[in-house]
Specification:
- It is flat, with a radius of gyration of 26 Å.
- About 55% of the residues lie in helices and about 10% in strands.
- It is built from 20 helices and 9 strands.
- α13 crosses α14.
- With about 425 residues, it is of the alpha/beta class.
- β3 and β4 form a beta hairpin.
- The longest helix is centred in the middle third of the chain and has 18 residues.
- The strands form 3 sheets. A 5-stranded parallel sheet has the order 2-5-6-1-7, with helices on both faces. Strands 3-4 form a two-stranded antiparallel ribbon.
- The N and C termini lie far apart (about 85 Å).
């Protein structure tokens, strides 16, 4: 008598794949071998041969930059010389908002002498002097240090770019083997570097882009769901065959190409879509993927995107503040994203107010108060390197906008009871 195979335990499949998509193993990375090999060679030479290097990994959001770094660090850690010698220091620009916080984090991770428990003692000047002395007193036999700077562009906003200058200077002087790896979604981030900092950077770049062709995109989709023999799930090959069979159907391919590939090609979107599908499968007790699961998954992902935190912030702004943001948008379009000051924005707002909506106030002090509120929310930020002199008024200080025009448009269109004139101004490039 032949025993019937037990049904696949979908809960175990979900548990394994959820870690890969959004959990502890969310840095799961495959493909892009050229990028992996280039970065792996760079850090290996730092650890094995004592070479100092610096490199920037650039690409749009969700393309897999951080996953690439984590993949390379995992591969490198398998080497005996790496596990015994290498020291990894990870900094995130959203957390280390100034050099003082960054230096404290570095001294903690390096476990230097001025660290007791979780506390770091000393002033900013003490931290910088101590760190530089510790690094520069070493030689090529010192332990190599790999610095990972996530959100590299935010470090360019730090006063005088002291941290970047000193890290690049040490790498260039080769006093101690260090490798500085910056990760940023801002393609022209090197233009934010001061001249003295730029001259010490090696100008190595590793560019990553979204998928250009659908077949490559589809292969990534399948790879995220394919199980290997290490998953410890019985009959995992049956799952793999089902995944292959599902993605080979013309209907599924057409759906993915028209509804996802043409809209958002990022890996992060791909992961959210697949995770939502797995959750739906588990809740329905289903054993196989199907078109209705993909359709439900897409609806859930789109629903999560329809209410962004930014929408809630803009919803709480006054109509004057919304008008200032629209004026900034128009100036950015007219002057090709060049920096602007309050006077330029005020002049743009007044032109709109006098032509289209005279019920709004024109009082400069009121408009400037709205301007200050937008600056506190960081919709508008001071230009890097644009330090204010003693005689310079705030109204003439150069600023840049951190709010993309497309995001502003979507958020303002959801603004409750927004005047028609404001919406028309938002969607036009002129006031006529």
């Amino acid at each position: 008598m032949v025993k019937r195979k037990a049904d696949l335990d979908i809960s175990k499949v979900y548990s394994h794949l959820s870690h890969r998509l959004l959990g502890d193993d969310s840095g799961y990375f495959f493909g892009k071998e050229a990028n992996v090999n280039e970065l792996l060679d760079l850090v290996t030479r730092t650890v094995a041969k004592g070479e100092s290097n610096s490199l920037l990994i650039l690409g749009p959001h969700g393309v897999g930059k951080s996953a690439l770094v984590n993949k390379v660090l995992r591969e490198a850690s398998k080497q005996k010389s790496w596990s015994e010698n290498a020291v990894i220091v990870k900094l995130n620009g959203f957390i280390a908002v100034d050099d003082k916080i960054a230096l404290k984090d570095i001294t903690k991770q390096l476990e230097l002498e001025n660290v007791v428990g979780n506390k770091v003692f000393g002033s900013f000047a003490d931290h910088l002097t101590f760190l530089l002395t510790s690094l520069k007193s070493g030689d090529k036999d010192s332990k190599p240090i790999i610095f990972i700077l996530e959100e590299f562009d935010t470090f360019c906003n730090h006063k005088n770019q002291s941290l970047l200058y000193n890290l690049f200077d040490i790498a260039q002087s080769r006093a101690v083997p260090i490798c500085v790896i910056g990760v940023s979604c801002q393609i022209d981030v090197t233009e934010l570097l001061e001249k003295r900092v730029k001259s010490r950077f090696s100008h190595r770049h590793l560019n990553m882009m979204h998928f250009k062709q659908f077949p490559e995109y589809l292969d990534f989709f399948k790879e995220f769901l394919i199980l290997d023999k290490n998953c410890k799930i019985e009959d995992y090959q049956a799952w793999n065959k089902m995944v292959q069979r599902t993605f080979d159907t013309k209907e599924v391919q057409t759906f993915l190409e028209s509804k996802l590939f043409m809209y958002d090609r990022s890996i992060s979107m791909m992961k959210q879509f697949l995770y939502a599908g797995l959750v739906h499968m588990l809740s329905q007790g289903r054993q196989e993927l199907s078109m209705d699961i993909f359709e439900t998954s897409l609806q859930q992902v789109c629903a999560s995107f329809s209410c962004q935190p930014l929408d809630l912030i803009i919803k709480d702004l006054s109509i004057l503040e919304v008008c200032i943001l629209i004026a900034v948008k128009h100036l950015s379009e007219i002057y090709d994203n060049e920096p602007f000051n309050f006077e330029m924005v005020y002049h743009e707002y007044v032109k709109f107010r006098r032509r289209r909506l005279t019920t709004l106030t024109e009082e400069k002090s009121v408009i400037f108060k709205c301007w200050e509120n937008l600056m506190s929310l960081e919709f508008i930020v001071a230009k890097v390197g644009g330090e204010r002199s003693r005689s310079q008024q705030l109204e003439y200080l150069l600023n840049i906008s951190h709010l993309p025009a497309a995001t502003l448009k979507k958020s303002v269109e959801k603004y409750p009871n927004c005047p028609t004139e404001v919406l028309q101004w938002l969607n036009s490039s002129t006031h006529n």
